[in-house]
Amino acid sequence: MAFDPDYASCSYTHVWLRVMDEKLDLDEISAALGVPYSRCIRAGELKSARLNKHYTHTGWFLESAGHVESRDVRDHLAWLLDQIGSKGTELQAFRDRGYLADICFRWDSAWGHGGPTFDPVQLVQLGSLGLEVWFDIYFDSEEPEA
Fold first, then answer.
1. Which residues make beta-bridge pairs with 26?
2. Residues 6 or more apart from 70 whose CB is under 8 A from it?
């Protein structure tokens, strides 16, 4: 399903599921969800050499970046829902164990007006997962051409 890959008010977007905990088993998460992670971090790994900081949690991330070429967040959400849309029970089990599990939408606004559009059917699917959703929003400095 394609929405508007050239979404004018967006300069960049992607979406990801994250599951995090101090003692997370990455292979267990992949097996339960039936998909490999796109990216991970491991507790104890160096987070910042300059500050000599290390990650305190292990994180499993499934990201649309690199899989979806569109500036419409609905296309990215469609991809994510195709991967995990039927995994609400598994995600609830992770939360019951105290794991952090949520979905983030990154949205880079092309000029500070407009914003992402959401499809009602996708919102119902997203709600059925029982996950909190948050946004990471950035604003480009240039105004649109007249």
1. none
2. 2, 3, 4, 5, 7, 13, 76
Contact call for residues 87 and 117 (beta carbons, < 8 A):
no
Q: Distance between CA 137 and CA 146 in Å, rounded? A: 24
Could you read off the pLDDT tens digit of each residue along the chain, which spans 146 residues?
568 889 989 999 999 999 999 999 999 999 999 999 999 999 999 999 999 999 999 999 999 999 999 999 999 999 999 999 999 999 999 999 999 999 999 999 998 888 899 999 999 999 999 999 999 999 976 555 54
**Residues 6 or more apart whose Cβ sits within 8 Å of residue 82:** none
Nearby residues of 89 by Cβ (< 8 Å), 6 or more positions away: none
Distance in angstroms (rounded) separating the CA atoms of residues 102 and 34: 17
Please enumerate in sequence order all residues whose Cβ is within 8 A of that of 143, keeping only pairs 6 or more positions apart, or say none.
Answer: 111
Alpha carbon of 146 to those of 113, 143: distances in Å?
14, 9
